[in-house]
TrEMBL record:
Sample GO molecular function, one term: ATP hydrolysis activity
Keywords: ATP-binding, Cell membrane, Ion transport, Iron, Iron transport, Membrane, Nucleotide-binding, Transport
GO BP annotation list: iron ion transport
Family matches, as Pfam families: ABC_tran
Domain ABC transporter as annotated: residue spans: 9-244
Compartments, record wording: Cell membrane
Keyword Iron attributed: yes
InterPro entries xref list: AAA+_ATPase (IPR003593), ABC_transporter-like_ATP-bd (IPR003439), ABC_transporter-like_CS (IPR017871), P-loop_NTPase (IPR027417), Siderophore_ABC-ATPase (IPR051535)
UniProt membrane topology term: Peripheral membrane protein
Name of the protein in its database record: Iron complex transport system ATP-binding protein
Gene Ontology cellular component terms for the protein in this record: plasma membrane
Gene3D superfamilies per record: P-loop containing nucleotide triphosphate hydrolases
Coiled-coil ranges (or none): none
Length: 266
C-alpha cells in the first residue's frame, strides 16, 4: 500500500482458528481503498478464514480488525454491512426463495425504522440482476437453478447491497470458464468505478490477471505481498504450492502465467 492510500481494512496481530491449533497466527495486513486485492495460497493455508475475519464473521482469538480505523467488532452489524459486503463460500439459500427475493436481502442493511422499502431499493436490485445476467430468472426459485446460476444469484445479493468494499470468497465456484471470466471482468469493472475488492481465488493466472495487489499465504502467514509480477515467481510457486513451473508473461495482458513442468509418473 502506498503512503497516500487510505486504509479500509487493517488486521493487526490477527490469530484465528477453530480449536487449539490456530489457522492464522499473528498476521498483519492492510487493504487500501481502491485496490483489487487477491489472496492466494494452497488449501488450508487460512485464506478463507482470514477473509471471514475481515468481514466480521470470524472472531479473532487475538488481534484486531479495523474498518476505517475503528474496531470492526465495536460497530453494529448493519453499519458494517453498509460499508462492506461479504460473499461467503458455498452459501445456502432458504428453501423456496426466488432470485429477486435473495437479491433483495442485500438491501436490509439500508433499512431502519424510519427508512423502509423505497424506489432506490428496487433500482439497486434491478441493476444487480442486470449485471449478473439474471433478469429473466428473477422469479425463479434459487433451488431450481444450476450451480453457476445460484452462484450468480448470491453475487446479485452482494451487488444489491451497494457497499463500497466487496469481500469475495472463491466467487467463481461452480462457474464454467467463460462465466468465470465474465464475473471477474464484472468485479474488475466495479473496481475501476471505485469499489475496493478483496477476493480469494485458486487460479493463479486469474489472480495475476485481475489483481492490482496479490497476497500469497502459506501455513497461516503472508509470505509475499505486492504486484502480481513481484509475487508470482517460479521459485515461490514451487515453495508454496509444491509445483515446479515456468512463469512467463501472458501474451494478452503481460501478467504472470504459470506453466507447470511435466510430472514424472511411476
Amino acid at each position: 500500500m502506498s503512503s497516500t492510500s487510505t486504509p479500509v481494512l487493517t488486521a493487526k496481530g490477527l490469530t484465528l482458528g477453530y480449536g487449539a491449533d490456530p489457522v492464522v497466527r499473528d498476521l498483519d495486513l492492510t487493504v487500501a481503498e481502491g485496490e483489487f486485492t487477491v489472496i492466494v495460497g494452497p488449501n488450508g493455508c487460512g485464506k478463507s478464514t482470514l477473509l471471514k475475519a475481515l468481514g466480521r464473521v470470524n472472531r479473532p482469538e487475538a488481534g484486531t480488525v479495523l474498518l476505517h480505523g475503528r474496531d470492526i467488532r465495536s460497530q453494529r452489524p448493519k453499519a458494517v454491512a453498509r460499508q462492506l459486503a461479504l460473499l461467503p463460500q458455498s452459501p445456502l439459500a432458504p428453501e423456496g426463495i426466488t432470485v429477486r427475493a435473495l437479491a433483495a436481502r442485500g438491501r436490509f442493511p439500508h433499512h431502519t425504522l424510519l427508512r423502509q422499502w423505497s424506489p432506490r431499493d428496487e433500482t439497486a436490485i434491478a441493476r444487480a440482476l442486470e449485471l449478473t445476467g439474471l433478469g429473466d430468472l428473477a422469479d425463479v426459485q434459487v433451488g431450481s437453478l444450476s450451480g453457476g446460476q445460484r452462484q450468480r444469484a448470491w453475487v446479485a445479493m452482494v451487488l444489491a447491497q451497494d457497499s463500497a468494499t466487496l469481500l469475495l470468497d472463491e466467487p467463481t465456484t461452480y462457474l464454467d470458464i467463460a462465466h468465470q471470466y465474465d464475473l471477474l471482468e464484472l468485479f474488475a469493472d466495479l473496481h475501476r468505478r471505485g469499489r475496493t475488492v478483496v477476493a480469494v481465488l485458486h487460479d493463479l493466472a486469474q489472480a495475476a490477471r485481475f489483481a492490482t495487489r496479490l497476497v500469497m499465504m502459506d501455513r497461516g502467514a503472508v509470505v509475499a505481498d505486492g504486484t502480481p509480477g513481484e509475487v508470482v515467481t517460479a521459485e515461490r510457486v514451487a515453495a508454496v504450492f509444491g509445483l515446479a513451473c515456468d512463469v512467463v508473461p501472458d501474451p494478452r495482458t503481460g501478467t504472470p502465467l504459470v506453466i507447470p513442468h511435466e510430472r514424472a509418473l511411476g
